Amino acid sequence: MQVMKKKSTITFLRRLSKLRVYQHNNLDNFFAHQKASEDDNAIRGILIANPDHYVSTNTNPDGSGDQELIETMGMYEKPMRYILHTTTDKKDFPAPRLENYPIVLCVIGTDSQTGNYSGITAFHQFKPTEKGFIASLNLYFSDKFPAQLVEQHKMHLAIEFSNWIKAAYDEQNK
For residue 111, with 0-12 CB atoms within 10 Å meaning exposed, 13-18 middle and 19 or more buried, which class applies? Predict the structure, then answer.
């Protein structure tokens, strides 16, 4: 699937890596675990999520900044290094909100060297259910990224969120 997205004055043809997760775990517990991981300077949560993650650190020593990450994208070639910035600004959302998905996580990647937009935007939406939650996990890549990377990133995303969900479940049931 390809989606058009206007970013500043540049229009990108985007490739989409999309995954839907159905989880029988409490959404509040999942996000509480994510928050606890962030409080640990994001290192614990990011590094346990996926063996593709090599380095994760906060850009400010007090934990208030963005996150710097070095990872490979689904075993594709060499690691990439970028800064992740979480935003709630709707103008940064690469797609419309899904109806009945009240929680949105939008993360924009910037090149760690230049500070320019990296061509990667994560746009995840969450819906609580009676037995847990449903997550619509989406990454939008500019057309500079090969289709193979986008396809392989689906595996990366599945492993990452599966491990986060398992860690939250294990933490809840200690």
Answer: middle
Q: What distance, in Å, lies between the first and last C-alpha atoms of the chain?
A: 41
Place of tokens 């600004």: 89
Positions in the chain whose pLDDT score sits under 50: 1-15, 41
Tell me the C-alpha distance between 1 and 137, whole Å.
14
Q: How far is CA 94 from the centre of its chain?
A: 13
pLDDT tens-place string over residues 49-73:
777 777 777 777 666 678 888 888 7
For residue 144, the SS3 value is coil
Reported pTM: 0.77
Q: Which residues have CB under 8 Å from 86's CB, separation 6+?
A: 66, 105, 106, 107
Which token pair is 7? 């970013």
